[in-house]
Amino acid sequence: MIKKFAWTVAAAVIALSGTTGASATTSSSAPIDNLTPGRFHRALDPLVGTWKATKTNYVLSSEPIVSRDITVKTRWIGKTGGRFLEEKTEGTLGGRPYYRLGVLGFSNVDRRYEWTTFDSVTPTAMTYRGGRVKVKATKLSLPGEFTDPGILGPRYRGKSIPMRTVITLGKRPTFDLYFTPPGQKERLVDRVVYTRRIG
């Protein structure tokens, strides 16, 4: 009786969770694999490699700051099972050393792209989570929010600022960062344009 009860409970748990091991099955018997990287991960493959980049920043000075000595190295992190891309950016910005570490991936569970960066300018992680994705796209729009340490000026220090990164994939990927300060329209604050480095 106890053994029969245990099997009944196990069957109920599997039915409720919709998963058996690494995959789930819908009513139409089509497998849904929440653990294995798939076509939405593969859409990020064009970012892999070593790039020269031009970075234009519109917020750190009254005039745009343009850096042309930026190097970007992007790779799939093997120890995550190839689920996440690691991006390392180095160069100078406004005559000072610049560094950024970024991690980009796709959540099979939430069906969205997720992007987090850590850099030498902002003393906080910048985290972005896109909307639910239904079809493969060449342009990703990932919103987020951060507490301004004073980048936008003294009156915004400590305030929550909506932000958005737009990643355009292709032969020359582009990363555009937008801020929407309180009471203002969204504006472009940073753009990085990649050019693949050969050799």
Please summarize what this structure is.
With 199 residues, this protein is mainly β.
What would you note in describing this structure?
The chain has 199 residues and is mainly beta. The protein folds into two domains: 2-32, no CATH class; 39-196, Calycin beta-barrel core domain (Lipocalin). Helix content is 10%, strand content 49%. It contains two helices and 13 strands; from the N terminus they run H-E-E-E-H-E-E-E-E-E-E-E-E-E-E. The chain has a ten-stranded antiparallel beta sheet with strand order 9-8-7-6-5-4-13-12-11-10, with no helix packed on it. A three-stranded antiparallel beta sheet has the order 1-2-3. A hairpin with a 5-residue loop joins strand 11 (160-168) and strand 12. Residues 1-29 have low confidence and may be disordered.
Number of separate domains: 2
Q: Tell me the helix content.
A: 10-25%
Mean pLDDT: 86
Any idea what the CATH superfamily of the largest domain is called?
Answer: Calycin beta-barrel core domain
Instruction: Write the element-wise H/E pattern from the N-terminal end onward.
Output: HEEEHEEEEEEEEEE
Largest sheet properties: 10 strands, antiparallel
Beta-strand share of residues: over 45%
Alpha-beta content class: mainly beta
Radius of gyration: 21 Å
Q: Tell me, briefly, the overall form.
A: globular
* CATH class division of the largest domain: Mainly Beta
In terms of per-residue confidence, which ranges show pLDDT below 50 for 5 or more consecutive residues? 1-29
The CATH architecture designation of the largest domain is Beta Barrel
- Calculate the terminal CA-CA distance, rounded to whole Å: 69 Å
Strand tally is 13
The CATH topology of the largest domain corresponds to Lipocalin
- Record the strand order, biggest sheet: 9-8-7-6-5-4-13-12-11-10
Helix segment tally: 2
